[in-house]
Amino acid sequence: MESVDCDIDSYSCLSFRLSDKLKLQNQEDWYFEIEDFGTILFPPSPNWFLSGAVDSREEDAILVTASFKNIVVYQLLQDVSLPKILRMVPYQEKVQLVSIYPDASHALYGMTVGSCSDSGSVRLINMESGANVWRHSEHQGSLVTGLSWGIVGEEPVLVSVDDKSRMVVCQPRHQVAKVHKIPSVTEAACLETNPSDRSQALLAGGKMIHLVDLKDGNVLMQFQGHNSDIYCIKWFQGKGSPFPLDIQENDHPTVSQESKNGNESANDVKGPDSDNWRIKTQSPNMEGPFFASSDYGRQVFIWDLSAKRYVTEVSVPLSASYTKKFHGKEKITGKQHISLSWFKSDLMSTTPKGELLMWNLWPGGGRYTVIHHLHTRAIYNLTLIGNIAVSCGQDRFLQGYHVVSSSHMFQYPILGACATSLAFCPHDVNRLAIGSQENVIRLINFEGKVPLQTQVVWQNIKGKIMSLAWHPEHEGKLLFGTASGQVGWVDISGRVTSCAYYHQKSVYKVEWAPLMCPEKTGLSDTWCAYSFGDREIVIRSSSNAMTNPVHLLPLLSEPANSKALKDVTEFSFSCDYKYFAVGANDGQVRIYSAADLKLCVSLHVLRKAIQHILWQPPVNSSSSYVVAVGSNESRLCIFDLSAHFGKTPCEVEILTQATRDLCGHESRVVWLAWSPHKPDVLASASYDHTVQLWNANTGQMLVNYGGHTSRVFRVEFSPSDPDLMFSFGEENSLHSWRPSQLTSKTPGESLAKGKDRVKKIKEQAETGDQTCKDVAASNTVEKKSKPGVAGTSSEKPISGSTMVASTKRGIYKSFFPKLHSTCSKKKSFFHLIVVNLLNSVENNEEAKAKGKEVEEELSDELEESSSNDQVELCIENIENVCKQFDFLLEKDTEMPEPEELLYALRLYGKPVEMDELLTTEISEHVKRGSSVQGDLMHCWRGSLDEHIRNAARQKQLNPFLVSSAPQVSIKLWEYASEAYAEQLIEEGDFISAATYLVNINKVEEAIELLMKNRCFREAMSIAKCRRGYSEELVKKITLGWAASTIYEGAFDFAASLQVSIGQIEEAAATMARRNDHGSLFVASLLYQHAEKKDLTKSIGLLSLKEACIKQDHDKIDRYLAYLPELEWFRIISCCHQNLVKLVQEVTSDEQSPTYCIVKSQVVNKGNTETEEESVIVSDVEESMSPIEKYPFLQHLTEELINYGFKDESYPHLYETITSSLAAHQTPTSVKQLWFLVAIALCELLMSPTQELWELRLTELLNYALSWGKVDQAYHLTHILLPRGVTDLSTLHMNFEYQEGCSKAVSLLLHIYHVSELGLLHSELQCEEAWTFIQQNLVCEENAKQSENPVDVSSGETENDSTSIYDSEKQENTVLKAMMKEAEKGEHFDCAIKVDKEKCKSKLTNIKFLSLPRTTTEFLSKLHSLCDFFITDKDVHNVMKRVTEVLSNPKELLLQIVLNFKEKGNLKDKDVQDLIFKISSLKS
């Protein structure tokens, strides 16, 4: 959770209200010419990891950001207020970088910003109109990493560079671009033009910086020195040098803020006597210009361009405010982004922890000062507008800070992803909760002293926020659901409580409601949390988040003739919680009674998935049963159900008609909102990009908001202002708007206005293009008219050999491209075609009238023609007809050429003319590169034979040509198939190539081709189906296939292949390369079949070990049925299973558990037999139960007897276990730890001698020490000594024990007490534990006072006070000495401070540790621990070894006493006694 608040003093004179902000941003401005456009309350966030995603211009205080699919234009104000959003320009793609033209007064480009998208296209945008001035795609899809404005030949140019080292210099005035390939640059990262010579630019690629000439792309200089990839470059734009004037005197001592390796060295002072100082400051020619660069390794270099080297190198600290903390314990891995900017002669930089630093530089070093720490996470962008430093970063805040006055100017919340939910608090109308897809919840306070005061909650939230709901009664309790299935609630302080049960998919809705039908649900809470996900509705307890949820749908009572509701999509409770509605995917809505979960009303009106169901809020304090339903249909339905409730239940009412249909949206309706101020006013959000307000009573469309540029997801009414609404869409911004200011009534009107805006923007863009061309033409005339410039080419604004057009024509889709272009050139073209055809018909009729002979000739020609009554056309006839009908031409239209008309008339001519037309069109397709259309036209023309052979020679065959070859000949088809197979092989499509070879009966070649390219499955299919069954061929394919799969790591599949050809032993070796117990067991079976006994035993033992570690004990029993020689492993399995079960039960027991095992007798009344059941009981149950408790080792002995392992077999079993299972291992996981413990316990139990028993106990304890976790050591020692340290009989020693004679037992006792002390200390670091203790102590004190009232009149008061004073004085002296001694040790700092930080996340509620309930119990516990460590004879031999892994008892005891003295109720005499006892211990 992040609570990000600004400096309150900076806002002391500011009284912010939401209406003031709306008034501020709705001022008339040239940017806000868009009608019906609201205020952007939360703009989208600039993109991360890009130093060029933010740009600014000081002249007019403009700030431009590349934010998701938008370009956001801000204007900074001089007073303490939020920046004004001037325009948000939508983009179709994700915007990567922006660069504003540096001169605001420029006539053409003063309002132009350059931008680039993730697809590689570069655009010029007019900020005033939002128009797309120009665009080019010369980067060919590569990622653009740098963008900047420059000048070439007195012409402004926009320079961009991509990760393929291509630099594109485009000139907007002439709309041309030139591409430079710079081979010496690898993976260009950023680009900055030289402010003193804008024809040059710095280009950073990898660890090098290049100075490049924009005119010809030549590299002028190279700068090396960085050890990591470069992130940011900034030119020094001040006058002179960024270093102090007295730098030549060399009397400025340097304080190194951080060395290169990241370790702080603040005491490393260098002065004039240092050789390093003299060498680094010898720079006689520091003329500049200068620039700074930063890399991902936190190194910053200051470069002198004239000297061609860097003059200063500094290292940015990880965190300037918490250097020791971060250097000691926290390390950031990966890239560390350091943003740079210049303020006058000082350099400003950021740190990975969100701080802003100001550097005072000199040659060879620099000193930093922390400016502010307003950000809580990394800063990716930094820019200065005048004296205001604007920064934004990972915490999604835009921060403004006045550098001169050291005052915080503004804090602007921004959205990094699309918002998903809005919810106003019912108890505080000025508090708004916003959920988003960036896994955070924002809590906005509109009445805070800080404008838009925001609290960000992100910790313990897993997934995108999908739904929010405030609790109706408990103030500040917010329920949420995420896309990962998590459901939980957040309180007003930001603490997150997560429910244990997760949905498998997204949680689409959550809601608070009273518990329904307690007799069916089995819960007892007054209020419950309801969530919908996985097509099911779940009820959760609000008092215990760990309680299992109740699934609601199976509890619903359906009529006998009605099917259960499936595919649920929505649910909603009525305002009085008496009824709840459930919507389904088929459009059906069912209303149930909350009292008995019986169906009341079924709505069968809609036919598509229900999106939202919303009940109308009460009017005049009376319940309203009017419900609005939105679905995937464009309409929404209103149902008045008041008359359908309260009747005697007999039959379920089915409604097939809505009370009112509200139609007008053009796409689905996804969200609804009733007005809390005006009855019957309903708002709907739709995918048609609009929000519609309705009068639900009359169906009238009131107003429509069309300010969104994408789909709208949510809309809400302001609970405090009747004329204020909020909505958000897919464009990552939250809008606020006033219905009274809207002019559109319907979505159609808003969409029409949007189209008009787009049309207007295009017209403005075309006007701007024409203006550019006119200016360019005038400049050309002026240059030509100047004397002495003959021979210069003014038509080429950028010199170079290659000029690239900015736009490319796509492939034309028509089958007749030339005919299409010919016919579409002129207006009235087809009028002339018709009159020419009519003229040919008339000429034909005249020819018929002349005689029979002519008629016969004409009839012969007509039979050959493709159309009736047509004659041969000629140019002369066409010219005559065009002159005769020239009046058909429209005004200002030229007469088509006769050749064009003749070409078009071929379509209506003879077959020969059609053949010529097709030949010409095919040639046109070849020129345009559209070969598919040409192939089809060859088929129409009947010229496939020659075309297929030419395509085969040129390797341009395709499936259509090959499939068409048989209509010419079979030989041509075989030739084409083989040629196409070769072509496919070159293209990498081996399977298709083999298929074509099989088609022409070249099966062997196809199989060899597939095997060569590792397509074995396909080769096997062909070998078995097309060539019969050849064992040799199948074996060859299988062996190659198995070798390939082994190389890829698919050992199980490779083993199956080897088994299929009889290679059993090889298959066993292959399967044994897997580590899971199932594969190892199968490998042992394969070795058993191959009669390899040793391998069978060893691999089988590995499978049993892995199954035991994975706690799959059921499978161990099944494995042993096939591995009888390993029956002894059942001992290990039994011990491990009981160990894990014991630890789990002790850990999960909320009462005071013990580590004893009891056997309860369960008597069957119908039978005399009894069943024994091992259980763990608490101390309370122990006092009530007469059943005897058993230590673990004794219980294990009885279990082994039941399996047939008796005492006389222990020596043989000991030898078998020790020889089969390797000892002296280091556990790498908790599961492996307890497996090794189980082995050691079995060996301890079966040890034949005292020496071996001592060895195994030591080995057992070493596992706990090597693991190094105090809780596991606690479990192990208390399992061995469940009755305490006074009863050592539970160790099952087979020899007589004498005190002090066993080092292993001494080590056990010491670890026993240290682990108990360590857990007690960790638990006492939590506030919940101290609250529990203080409550018990207060009760104890009250009880004592009631039993022994104090006599105020007695004379002991003065003496007591005196003794207390003396004891306090003496105690404080001892405490100071103890604390001073303790703070000297590194282990004290580690043990105490680490536990403080980790206890809340790992050891807060240690259920298996009982806290002291009274002062007496607490003192007794501490005194007993002190007495043990004082009287422990082996403490000097044992303590050093234990404290290296666990904790120092002296330090832990001291910290507990100090904490209890501060928060508890101990008497000073008791504290003094404990302090002196602890002081006698040795560290």
Walk me through this protein's architecture.
- The chain is α+β, with helices and mostly antiparallel strands and 1483 residues long.
- Helix content is 35%, strand content 23%.
- It contains 39 helices and 64 strands.
- The strands form 16 sheets. Strands 1-36-35-34-33 form a 5-stranded antiparallel sheet, with no helix packed on it. Strands 11-12-13-14-61 form a 5-stranded antiparallel sheet, with no helix packed on it.
- β38 (478-482) and β39 form a beta hairpin.
- The relative contact order is 0.04.
How helical, in percent, are the residues?
A: 25-40%
Described by strand count, sense and barrel closure, the largest sheet is:
5 strands, antiparallel
Distance from N terminus to C terminus (CA atoms, Å) equals 39 Å
Strand residues, percent: 15-25%
Residue-averaged pLDDT, rounded? 77
Work out the radius of gyration.
43 Å
The 3D shape can be described as: globular
Sheet/helix structural class: alpha+beta
Chain oligomer state: single chain
Annotation, overall tally of beta strands: 64
* Uncertain residue ranges: 1-35, 248-284, 323-329, 775-812, 862-873, 1160-1185, 1350-1372, 1381-1407
What topology does this entry show?
Blueprint: E1 2-4, H1 18-25, E2 39-42, E3 54-57, E4 62-67, E5 70-75, E6 84-90, E7 95-100, E8 112-117, E9 122-126, E10 132-136, E11 144-152, E12 155-162, E13 166-171, E14 176-181, E15 188-193, E16 200-205, E17 208-213, E18 219-224, E19 230-235, E20 254-255, E21 269-270, H2 275-280, E22 290-295, E23 299-304, E24 309-315, H3 323-329, E25 340-343, E26 346-350, E27 356-362, E28 365-372, E29 379-385, E30 388-393, E31 397-402, E32 407-413, E33 419-424, E34 431-436, E35 441-445, E36 453-457, E37 465-470, E38 478-482, E39 487-490, E40 496-498, E41 507-514, H4 518-521, E42 527-533, E43 536-541, E44 550-551, E45 568-573, E46 579-584, E47 589-593, E48 599-603, E49 610-615, E50 626-631, E51 636-640, E52 653-655, E53 660-662, E54 669-674, E55 681-686, E56 691-695, E57 700-705, E58 712-717, E59 725-729, E60 734-737, H5 747-785, E61 804-805, H6 817-823, H7 829-850, H8 852-864, H9 875-884, H10 898-905, H11 911-928, H12 931-941, H13 944-953, H14 959-964, H15 970-987, H16 990-999, H17 1003-1012, H18 1016-1026, H19 1031-1048, ...
Helix pairs in contact: 7-8, 7-9, 9-10, 11-12, 13-15, 15-16, 16-17, 17-18, 18-19, 19-20, 20-21, 21-22, 22-23, 23-24, 24-25, 25-27, 25-29, 28-29, 29-30, 30-31, 30-32, 31-32, 32-37, 32-38, 34-39, 36-39, 38-39
